[in-house]
Design goal:
There is one protein chain. This protein has 274 residues and is mainly α. Helices cover 74% and strands 0% of the residues. α3 runs antiparallel to α4, α4 crosses α5 and α5 runs antiparallel to α8. It is elongated and about 80 Å long.
């Protein structure tokens, strides 16, 4: 009986899409281990997925979260050390028994051979002095987010206090998001396009309601402070990542606005001096 005939009689346990997703996507691999193989738990899976995201962010985009990167790295490393003996496939190659014995002796292990128990001992020795407690991780994550949120609010107050109309922070936030919304209309770069832009702006501005206000910042800060109370590293990293994804777009808009404002001031000073 051919494989194709066998497949028609006994359908595969997993669909072709499921198999493709697990092969191609890292998070799907982790989810598969959690839900199907069941050899790692939800919190361990959250640590792996979140830390992998931060690793990609650092490696591919050069984004280093310096105040928390060491805590995240140590948490990821500890998870890997705990999981390695558990996920070991019970097979290995070596050149000689003497090499294995020499390797194990470096960790004060006298028992012969690579076993799950010996791997656990090796990992525990490697972890000595390199662990990050969940409490320390949560404190660092919380402090980092709170500091960034406070800095954004300071920048907004700076923009508001230096605006020609002395606008409030909420008006500044509203204007930022309104300008971004207008950009999606993609008006042509012509006199007619400019007139369309002005007409649309005048029509939409009076009733425009922004998604992000100072109240949203207050809620973000409350959630950031609550990270201190998390008891599991995976839960803390997941909440940190979700909150940062919500906050990051407006943080970048604010930083960009401050940068452009300061550039404008510098240009005005330069023109005045010359």
């Amino acid at each position: 009986m051919s494989d194709s005939e066998y497949g028609r009689i006994i359908p595969p346990k997993y669909s072709s899409k499921k198999r493709k997703d697990v092969i191609e996507y890292f998070n799907e691999k982790v989810n598969f281990l959690i839900t199907e193989i069941r050899n790692i738990n939800e919190d361990e899976g959250a640590v792996i997925k979140c830390a992998h995201f931060f690793r990609n962010e650092a490696y591919h985009n050069g984004v280093l979260k310096e105040p928390v990167i060491l805590n995240i790295t140590r948490t990821y490393f500890e998870a890997a050390c705990h999981l390695f003996p558990r996920l070991w496939i019970k097979a290995y190659s070596y050149s000689s028994d003497a090499d294995v014995k020499s390797f194990l002796s470096e960790f004060d292990i006298q028992e012969a051979g690579i076993t799950t128990e010996n791997l656990s001992k090796v990992c525990e020795r490697i972890l000595t002095g390199n662990k990050c407690s969940t409490e320390e991780l949560c404190i660092r994550l919380s402090q980092y987010l709170v500091q960034r949120i406070d800095e954004s609010l300071e920048h907004l107050n700076f923009l508001a206090s230096n605006s020609m109309r002395k606008e409030t922070v909420d008006v500044i936030l509203r204007r930022m998001q309104f300008v971004e919304m207008l950009a999606k209309f993609d008006f042509p770069y012509t006199d007619e396009g400019f007139q369309q832009l002005i007409k649309t702006q005048n029509e939409l501005w009076p009733t425009y309601k922004p998604q992000i206000t100072t109240k949203r910042f207050e809620r973000w800060k409350e959630r950031a402070l609550l990270l201190n109370k998390e008891k599991m590293p995976g839960a803390a990293l997941k909440k940190f990542l979700n909150l940062e994804k919500e906050y990051l777009p407006i943080e970048r808009k604010i930083e960009d606005s401050v940068f452009k404002f300061e550039e404008m001031i510098d240009a005005m000073i330069h023109d005045h001096e010359h």
